[in-house]
């Protein structure tokens, strides 16, 4: 405490050094003037008054300085503590500190909300992985007892795909936090991205008896986006189309089209799936919302479209969805045209 007070006194004297020097110089010149015009005895009285006033001034200033700094320390410990302000300078300092404090609290609340959101998502995603793990365990028990059937192998493949998708969603959820560092805006070959996704997921198409149909005349179409994140969005939408179009009877198709509007390019992904009910349309981009289709398809997570919406917003791309039950769904992604990026 003594060291702290000593430090305050030193800081106070340093702050007031210029004022003290000016006052002393002023006093000196007054004395010099009096000394040249009056007797020495008459000089003593104004000298005492001047020194006394300087001391009074310094005491008052010290009191203001000490009280303000003391209360600031209390405010740091407890933000509800009221700070008494004596000068306009102190008011300005307090307003700046209070603004910084409020900004810090706001950022802290945002971090807490984001952490809670992430924890909720991870918990839900991990919970969703428990079901396929349980099913795989039951299939393995059948295998041990020699009761394994051909359809069990298909179920095993399907549940393995569910686990893969779940882990991929966890990875992408984590990557979203680093979006600003991971995001590289450039001219992306849209047709090349589509062909790459189809080639990579060829077996997934075949397994679900769903086939891609590209109705794009242009050989090259470049748009402004991020290569990896744009691929994630398109792939997720195609996955959804396959999932809800899968058929063991007649084959279904996912059609990809391109429309051009002035400075925009619109990619349309059309599936022949079960469609989305009108009463679910307003909530399809909500986290973990699976709606009516989620009751039919138990492997629905409700995280895919949510993440697509987040990524599309960050990429400054617009996603719109039209759907009719029993007919299918049309997902449109609007891009800006190619720009020259070096």
Automatic annotation (TrEMBL):
GO biological process, one term: cellular response to phosphate starvation
Segments traversing the membrane: 20-37, 43-60
Membrane topology: Multi-pass membrane protein
GO cellular component, as recorded: plasma membrane
Keyword Membrane attached: yes
Location, primary (coarse class): membrane
Database matches in SUPFAM superfamilies: ATPase domain of HSP90 chaperone/DNA topoisomerase II/histidine kinase (SSF55874)
Tagged with keyword Transmembrane helix: yes
Gene Ontology MF terms in the entry: phosphoprotein phosphatase activity; phosphorelay sensor kinase activity
The entry's keywords: Cell membrane, Kinase, Membrane, Transferase, Transmembrane, Transmembrane helix, Two-component regulatory system
Catalytic activity field: ATP + protein L-histidine = ADP + protein N-phospho-L-histidine
Coiled coil: none
EC number(s) given by UniProt: 2.7.13.3
Cell location: Cell membrane
Pfam families for this protein: HATPase_c (PF02518)
The Histidine kinase domain, residue ranges: 124-339
PANTHER family recorded: HISTIDINE KINASE (PTHR45453:SF2), PHOSPHATE REGULON SENSOR PROTEIN PHOR (PTHR45453)
Name of this protein: histidine kinase
């Amino acid at each position: 405490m003594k060291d702290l007070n000593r430090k305050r006194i030193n800081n106070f004297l340093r702050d007031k050094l210029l004022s003290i020097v000016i006052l002393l110089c002023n006093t000196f010149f007054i004395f010099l003037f009096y000394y040249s015009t009056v007797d020495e005895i008459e000089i003593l009285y104004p000298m005492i008054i001047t020194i006394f006033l300087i001391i009074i001034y310094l005491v008052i200033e010290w009191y203001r300085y000490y009280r303000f700094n003391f209360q600031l320390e209390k405010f740091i410990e407890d933000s509800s503590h009221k700070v008494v302000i004596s000068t306009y300078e102190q008011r300005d300092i307090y307003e700046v500190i209070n603004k910084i404090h409020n900004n810090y609290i706001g950022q802290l609340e945002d971090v807490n909300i984001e952490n809670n959101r992430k924890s909720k998502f991870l918990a839900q995603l991990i919970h969703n992985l428990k079901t396929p793990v349980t099913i795989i365990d039951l299939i393995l028990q059948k295998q041990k007892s020699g009761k394994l059937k051909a359809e069990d192998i298909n179920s095993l493949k399907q549940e393995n795909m569910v686990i893969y998708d779940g882990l991929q969603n966890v990875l992408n959820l984590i990557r979203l936090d680093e979006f600003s560092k991971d995001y590289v805006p450039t001219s992306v070959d849209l047709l090349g991205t589509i062909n790459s996704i189809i080639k990579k997921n060829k077996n997934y198409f075949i397994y679900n008896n769903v086939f891609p149909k590209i109705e794009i005349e242009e050989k090259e179409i470049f748009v402004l986006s991020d290569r990896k994140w744009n691929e994630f969005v398109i792939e997720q939408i195609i996955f959804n189309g396959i999932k809800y179009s899968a058929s063991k009877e007649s084959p279904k198709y996912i059609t990809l089209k391109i429309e051009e509007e002035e400075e925009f390019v619109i990619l349309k992904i059309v599936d022949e799936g079960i469609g989305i009910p009108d009463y679910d349309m307003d909530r399809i981009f909500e986290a973990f919302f699976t709606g009516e289709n989620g009751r039919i398809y138990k492997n629905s997570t409700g995280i895919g479209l949510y993440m697509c919406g987040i990524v599309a917003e960050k990429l400054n791309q617009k996603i719109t969805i039209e759907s009719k039950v029993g007919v299918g769904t049309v997902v449109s992604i609007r891009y800006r045209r190619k720009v020259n990026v070096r």
